Structures are given as structure tokens and as C-alpha cells.
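Lab notebook: predicted structure, single chain.

Context: the supervisor wants predicted structures on file for every construct in the current expression panel, including those that have not yet been purified. This is the next one on the list. No modifications to the sequence; it matches the entry in the shared construct table.
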Amino acid sequence: MKRTNDLLVGSIVLLVILTLTGATLWVKQTDIGERRSKVVARFRDVGNARVGNAVVIRGVRAGTIEAIELARGGWVHVRMNLDRSIQLPGTPVVLLNESSLFGEWQATITPRSALPHDETVQAQVAESAGGGDVLPGATLPDIARLTAVAGQIAGDVANVAGRVEVAFDERAARELRSSIRNFAALSTTLSHTVRTHAGDLDTLSRGLQSAVSSLNRTAASAEKMASRVDSSSSSGDIRKIFDDMSHAAAELRRASVQVRAMSEQLSSTQRQLDSFLTNGDSVLVKLNTGRGSLGMLLNNPSLYQNGDSLLTQLRGLVTEVRTNPKKFVSVRIF
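Prediction complete. Output recorded below exactly as produced.
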């Protein structure tokens, strides 16, 4: 009887041990005897990732984290066990991130082209790349860090709101209402101006259309002239015109030579005339100042008076000779 009880107790203990072992293996999702492949990724920081966390590819569990080890150069190597049937995506990258709100983490293997547009994540992947067979990795911020950042952002928003509240007081509100009224008045004035000058705009538009029409006619005339010039050049008229222009240019050159010679002669004549005028001016100055015989004759009043007296006496003498010629002329005949 005693042996039967011992056997029963031993069986129960063995069954409990096997049950606990199976439950532990099931919780850790350990595959016993299954062939696995090893993948290693390196990170600067693995956050709260732990051994046994799931490895996910395209949302499907593909393995577990086997080990987390410190490596040289400040790196952390994460070794992962993957199913043999799992095929890695092209240019694989490993991301460590939270998988639930309860702090559980997982490793996600994704193509590099599917990385989130985050400068920090891109920089971590670029830094960890180039490790040979070791995959590049990056750690996404956890909920606590996001909550801290959100709290910081909320504090900044509250600070900005406080500053806005300080700046936007009752006076600012009144000024804003005044600005709105001024803008409404300006809009009314602008509308009235547009309605008033709508006719002017129509007139300007018609004038512009007329100018465009004139420009089109001018372009058509220019095109006709160009066609005429083209036809004239083909018929030899242009060459004749150029020949006539060359002949006219030669004549013009000869005329310019003659004009140059005449200008030189005029220059010589002008110099002679200047010399003559200078000499004449000198003579006139001498006559005016009474120098020389002619100057004294022109400027001495006594000479004029004597000459006038002489003329008077001559008139008297001529009168007396006419009245009494015998007194002056005596004729004797032998």
C-alpha cells in the first residue's frame, strides 16, 4: 500500500514538472528540435528589448531573439533565431519597437525602402550599415519617450498660448476689430471704384484691342515689304540699288573733298579778313584819337573853320570878279 502511494505521488510530481516545462516552453514559444537560421543585427541601443522577444516579418512571427551582446565600438549585437522557411526581404533592416502598451518589444525585419520617414531612424540605419553579414538596425522610441516628448510639446503649446493670451489683450482685440472695420471700408471703396471705372476699363480694353489690330496690320505690311524685298533681290533690283548707292557714296566723297578744300580756303580768307579788320581798326583808332595828318584833319576844328573862311572869301572873290572883271584882268592890244 505504501509503495502504491509513493508511485502515485511520484507520478503526480513528474506530471506537474512536465506540465510546467511544457507551459514554459509554450509561453516562450520555443521550438524543440526544429531547424533554425541565425541572423545578427547591430544597434547603438536596444531600448527595453529582451531575450525571447518575437521577431516579425511583414506582420508574421518568424522567430525569437536568442541573445543580446555588447560588441566593440559601442555596438550591441542582437542574435535572432528564424524559421528555415522564412526568406528575408531585399536589403533587410531590423527595427526594435514596442509591440503593445504593456512594454513588450519585438524585432521587425523590413526592407530599407519601407523605413519610416524619420531623420533619427534614417541616421541610425546609415550608421549601422556596412557591417558585412551583420544587418543594420535602429531603435524606435518607446511609449514613455513619446509620452515625454508629447508632454514637452504640450508644455511648449501652453507656453505659447500664455504668451498669446498676454499679447492678445482687450486693446489688441479692439485694434483687431478696428482693422476689420477698416478692411471692410476699404473693400467697399474698392468695389465702388471698380464699378465707377468699369467703363474706363472697357475703353482701355477697346483701345488695347485697336492697338493690337494696328500692330497686326503693321506686321502684315512688314511681311509684304519683306516679300517684295525678297522678290526684288531675286530680280536684280537690289544689286542695282546697291550699285547706285556705291556711286552716290563716291560722289559724296568727292563732294566732301571739295567742301574740305573750300573750308580751307574760307579759313585762309577769314585769316586775311581778320588781319584786314585788325589793321582797319588800328587806323580808325588813330583817326579817332587825332594822330597823323588825317587824324588832325578830322579832329582839328580850327582847320575846318579856316577852310570854311577860305571858301567864303573865294565866293566873294568870284562874285567881285564877275561884277568887275576889269579890276582884275587888264588886256592891252598893241
